[in-house]
Every structure is written in structure tokens, then in C-alpha cells.
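Structure in, sequence out. Go:
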């Protein structure tokens, strides 16, 4: 029968296994921690992870060139946060980021959370970089360091972003249109259309047909044609008796049947008149000379 293992030996075995697992896990991490603290190595690791010191964070805060973003939950943010910081939980990043993006663009963004081993600030920094923000820093254990140094803090929930009033939006739109019109060259002024001028014709007295025939005037219902415009082969129209000419028939084009020569028809012989026979007188007249001779 083997003697039982004492409690001390069990404790040593458990500690040894735990240390071995911790070393193996640390060696597998890309940002593994140094086993022996070295200030230079620690600073290099912090730079690679985008971390900044408290002194650098204070300088950015005082210059007004940075936006601090709290990565903790909304309840913790309401209890206390860096003055002017925005609340953006990585778990609700997709829902809350669009409303805050405009305030972060073009600025240095500093994320922070609470505790030496809090990774929320690093997760938030990676999400911001994936959205196109370039200058993103991390203040490790930011809230505790900031509060312990007596730096400016505030309490309360983050106010929801307010939309601009309608009047302000209209004024901004008009200002944008004015700027666009000023930058666009003015088009030449269009000429105003000239009003149409109606001819004024003299009023002529109307004549009856009898008066027109007697006075030789033109009836208002008739048409006048100057002599020089009349065709040469036609007589000048009489104003008093002229009537609209009938339309002349349009000659039709010959068809193939019309072009076929017609068969000649036999000529009918006309009866010829026979001369009547002349009867000679049996007793011809005797001339005067013949009577005298007899």
C-alpha cells in the first residue's frame, strides 16, 4: 500500500502545472509579456499596441486636439469619466458609432477603460481603426490614473446627439447654394422677347353689290389681283364678275395598256358616183354662118 500524498506535495504540483500553462499561453501570444521587467521592452510593447503615457494624454487634453472615448459600460460612464469624453461601448459599436463619427474625424482619438488588465480600450481602438480612423491611441488603466491625479472629471450620462433645428438647416442650405452660385460663372442675360406688333389696317366702308358695280369699287368679299401678276396667257380677272376658277384636272400618267398600239381598223370604201350619160340632140343647132351659106 502506497503512502498517501501529502497536502504540500499536491500544492506544489498544482502550482507547477499552473505556471507551465501560463508560460505556454504567454509564449503563444503575439504580444507576449516579458518574463523579466525591462523598461525599454515594456515601452516598445506599449508603442506597438498604440498605448500612450498619462503625461502624453494630459498634453493632448490640454491642447484640445484629442477626443477621449470611454470604452466602459454606460452605467460606469455615468458614475464618473474624463471631462468631455464620449461613451462608446464596443458591444454596441455598430449602433452608436455613426452618431459620433463626425466628432472624431480629423482628431486624435484616445480610448480608455479601468484596470491594468482591461482590454475594452484596445478592442475599441481596433474597431475605430477598421472604420478608417488613423490616429487612435490607448490610455491603459486610464480612468484610475486620471482620477487619482485629480485631473478634470465629470459625471452623468452622455447626451444624445441633437439634430440641427429646421431654420438652421435651411440657412446652411441657402449659404451652400450662394457659395456654389458665386463660384459658377454667371450666364449671359437672355434678351427679353420683343412683343409681336400687329398691323393696323384702315377700316374700309362696305359697299353693296349695286354700289360696287356703279362706283367701280371692289366688294369686300372679292379678291384683288394686280395686272402685273396676272398670267400673260390669261385675261385679267374682272373684279366685279370674277369667280374662283375651277380646279383643272391633273393629267394621269399613261398606263402600260395605254402604251399598246391600237389595231388598225379596215377602211370602209365609199361608194363612187357614176357619171350620168349625156344625150346628144338629134337636131343640133345650126349656126348663123351655116344658114347664110345655104
Amino acid at each position: 500500500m502506497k503512502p498517501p500524498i501529502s497536502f504540500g506535495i499536491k500544492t506544489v504540483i498544482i502550482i507547477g502545472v499552473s505556471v507551465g500553462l501560463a508560460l505556454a499561453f504567454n509564449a503563444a501570444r503575439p504580444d507576449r509579456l516579458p518574463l523579466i521587467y525591462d523598461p525599454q521592452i515594456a515601452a516598445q510593447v506599449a508603442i506597438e499596441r498604440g498605448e500612450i503615457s498619462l503625461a502624453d494624454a494630459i498634453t493632448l487634453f490640454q491642447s484640445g486636439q484629442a477626443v477621449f472615448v470611454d470604452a466602459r459600460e454606460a452605467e460606469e460612464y455615468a458614475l464618473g469619466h474624463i471631462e468631455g469624453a464620449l461613451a462608446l461601448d464596443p458591444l454596441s459599436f455598430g449602433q452608436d458609432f455613426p452618431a459620433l463619427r463626425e466628432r472624431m474625424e480629423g482628431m486624435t482619438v484616445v480610448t480608455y477603460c479601468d484596470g491594468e488588465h482591461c482590454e475594452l480600450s484596445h478592442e475599441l481602438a481596433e474597431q475605430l481603426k477598421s472604420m478608417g480612423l488613423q490616429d487612435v491611441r490607448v490610455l491603459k488603466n486610464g480612468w484610475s490614473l486620471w482620477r487619482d491625479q485629480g485631473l478634470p472629471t465629470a459625471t452623468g450620462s452622455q447626451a444624445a446627439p441633437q439634430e440641427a433645428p429646421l431654420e438652421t438647416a435651411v440657412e446652411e442650405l441657402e449659404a451652400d447654394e450662394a457659395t456654389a452660385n458665386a463660384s459658377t460663372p454667371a450666364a449671359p442675360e437672355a434678351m427679353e422677347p420683343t412683343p409681336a406688333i400687329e398691323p393696323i389696317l384702315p377700316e374700309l366702308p362696305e359697299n353693296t353689290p349695286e354700289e360696287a358695280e356703279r362706283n367701280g369699287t371692289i366688294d369686300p368679299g372679292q379678291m384683288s389681283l394686280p395686272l402685273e401678276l396676272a398670267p400673260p396667257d390669261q385675261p385679267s380677272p374682272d373684279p366685279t364678275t370674277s369667280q374662283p376658277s375651277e380646279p383643272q384636272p391633273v393629267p394621269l400618267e399613261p398606263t402600260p395598256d395605254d402604251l399598246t398600239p391600237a389595231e388598225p381598223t379596215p377602211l370602209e370604201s365609199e361608194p363612187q358616183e357614176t357619171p350620168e350619160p349625156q344625150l346628144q340632140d338629134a337636131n343640133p343647132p345650126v349656126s348663123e354662118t351655116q344658114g347664110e351659106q345655104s
